[in-house]
Amino acid sequence: MNDDSLAFSPDDFSGFARLFPLPNLVMFPHVMQAMHIFEPRYRSLFEEAISDDQLIALGVLAQGWEVDYEGRPALEPMACLCRIATYQRTPEGTYNVLLLGVRRIQLQEELPPTKPFRVAEAKIVEDHVPSHSSAEEIVGLQQQLLMAFKRSMPKIPTSYEQVDELLGSQITLGMLADIVAYTAELNSSTKLSLLKTNNVVDRVHVLLNALSKSSQSSKARRTFPPAFSTN
What is the pLDDT of residue 227? Predict the structure, then answer.
């Protein structure tokens, strides 16, 4: 699928979000996530999406979801609207999907259960940079964030090369913060707070603090050889 087909405009969104709630994944705009869709209700959701606007909202289940997973457990109010980048149907009728996060959305009223999956009215939440923030402050925060991210990563040359590529790329501070928030080894509650923060400067300060704590913690428990993630 080419870049044009992945381009997103707020006008593409109907205001009604097909909800794919997850207990242990916080999705962010500007990143890609592979998923395997196998439950019948979510296969139905996916099939409607690919025949319509190609949009799915990855939501986060609120605490206590376990007692009503098959029903309609509460969701956190902020979710990530995603566009279907690619997909493959398996012989079993399930789907392997690659999703691209495109925007934060604020979930509002949930619609009555007329479909196998949940749908809610939602509004797009755009990044906000305070008007008093200078260009120099934004550049400084971007450099601080990249350096903090590099310090928090395993000492693998290819990882550093990827960070250096980000340093040289023309991306906004908000985009960078979302990429780092998704990639860094942070707990779900911290990631959720970052998803909920559309003020870019506030988000970066929360992220810098979290990365600092994460780096200190990893130094305290580091062993050799390190156990690398398979993700």
Answer: 40
13 in a domain, yes or no?
yes
Q: What is the DSSP letter of 78?
A: E
| Sheet strands (E) in the chain | 16-22, 32-37, 55-60, 78-89, 95-110, 118-125
User: Between these two residues, 155 and 81, which has the higher pLDDT value?
Assistant: 81
Burial class (CB in 10 A: 0-12, 13-18, 19+), 205: middle
Residue 36 sits in which domain range?
Answer: 3-125
CA-CA distances (angstroms) from residue 184 to 24, 51, 145, 179?
A: 15, 34, 12, 9
29-38, 120-129, 139-148, 210-219: which range is least confident on average?
Answer: 210-219
3-state DSSP percent of the chain in helix, strand and coil, to 5: 40, 25, 35
Encoding tokens for residue 146? 């990249």
pLDDT of the residue at 4: 56
Interhelix angle 157-168/135-152, nearest 10 degrees? 170
Residues 29 and 98 in one domain: yes
Render pLDDT for 23-46 as a digit per residue (tens, 0 to 9).
Answer: 889 999 999 999 999 999 999 999
Angle at 117 between CA 111 and CA 121, to 5 degrees: 30
130, part of any domain: no
